[in-house]
Amino acid sequence: MSKKAPAEKLTTKKIPIRSIALALGTVVGIAHIGVLGHLLNSIRPQYPVINFPAGKYSSYEIDVTKDGYSVRYKANDPKILESERSLNVDQNKRGLFGGGSEKRNEYRRDQYTQEGHRNLQGGELTEGKSAKDIECIVADAGARSQGAMAGTSIAAGALVPAVINIPYVGWLAAGWVSLLGGKVGSEVGSEVGSVFNDC
Fold first, then answer.
1. pLDDT single digits (tens) 169-187
2. What are phi and psi of 166, to 5 degrees?
3. Of 42, 153, 180, 184, which sits with the fewest C-beta atoms within 10 Å of its C-beta?
4. pTM of the model
């Protein structure tokens, strides 16, 4: 005869109701926090993310309301820079021949452009040179250059051999003659160029 092994008892562990209530309360609490966060985000007005090209002289303002938003952007702000200076002098002058006292009050207020130039014309914009003026300047420069070259060549060919043989200063006189020839040639070239180019 063989012995039978004793049958194992199956035991079930009961989960206490407190643990179930705690787990359920935790899940409901987390869900409420998530819903509350979602509601708070939906109440706050949303506006798109705009990357403005912000620089040293740019500025922008964004006004956001529940009805929408508005943007004010200036790419070059401030356009005019101001500077104020004041000087107060109150001194007694005493020198070799005596003197009096000096009282002087100075006040100066200037406006500058972004490039640092002082505004002397009350904010008006000045016009640049016309195309005809630029063409005349270029033509005059070319005519002066050609005239100077021709004048130097003529002076070197005709006058330098005559003055180079002067004792002691001949070499210096030859240089002067060449320079004078270049200067006269430049002036003559400018006159001829202005006639031919209608300037």
1. 888 888 888 888 899 999 9
2. -70, 130
3. 42
4. 0.36
β-partners of residue 90 are 103
- Written as one letter, the residue type at 152 is T
Cross-strand bridge partners of residue 85: 108
Q: What is the DSSP letter of 78?
A: -
CB 135 within 8 A of CB 197: yes
- Please state, as a whole number, how many other Cβ atoms lie within 10 Å of the Cβ of residue 190: 20
> Measured between alpha carbons, how far is 17 from 41 in angstroms, rounded to an integer?
36
Residue 193 and residue 74: Cα distance in Å, rounded? 48
- Specify whether the CB–CB gap between 176 and 190 falls below 8 A: no
Tokens describing residue 31: 């869900």
HSE (side-chain half, CA atoms, 13 Å) at 72: 4
Residues 108-157 have pLDDT tens digits of: 887 777 666 676 665 555 566 777 888 888 888 888 888 889 888 888 88
Residue 182 and residue 144: Cα distance in Å, rounded?
9
Per DSSP, the residues of 107-144 read EEEEEE-TTS-B--STTPPPP---HHHHHHHHHHHHHH
Residue 144 near residue 199, CB atoms below 8 Å: no
Residue from 137, 116, 123, 152 nearest 194 by CA: 137
Contact between residue 57 and residue 78 where contact means Cβ atoms under 8 Å apart:
yes
